[in-house]
Amino acid sequence: MQKIKVKYRKGEEVKFISHRDLMRAFQRAIRRADLPVAYSQGFNPHMKISWGNALKVGAVSEAEFAEIQIDGWIRPHELVERLNRQLPRGLEILEANLV
To answer: Residue 46 and residue 39: Cα distance in Å, rounded?
Structure first.
């Protein structure tokens, strides 16, 4: 298992979506990119992603962070490429590093 810290951008196109909708957009993109993300155990498993502080609705940012736990091994630059192909316009992974 590995952890990858990603730096992403929330642009003008998506500035009016809430933090919860932003999380759902990332989760959908991860599923579409077929990334081997780790899931919690229990009755209602969810992706193991740690998010930074929530932005207020209407705000844009050039440097937000999240930490994704991967079940297996993937190169950080491959994660960036695969996720960026699936994310909506306005959301973009800028860089990824192993933790």
So the answer is: 5
- Dist CA 47 CA 26 (whole Å): 10
CB atoms within 10 A of CB 18: 12
CATH code (residue 59): 3.30.70.580
Structural domain of 69? 2-98
Q: CB–CB of 67/30 below 8 Å?
A: no
Taking 50 as the pLDDT cut, the residues of the chain under it are: none
Domain count, the chain: 1
Q: Edge to edge, what strands does the sheet with 61-70 contain?
A: 49-51, 61-70, 2-10, 91-98
Q: How far apart are CA 8 and CA 51, in angstroms?
A: 11
Question: What's the predicted TM-score (pTM) here?
Answer: 0.90
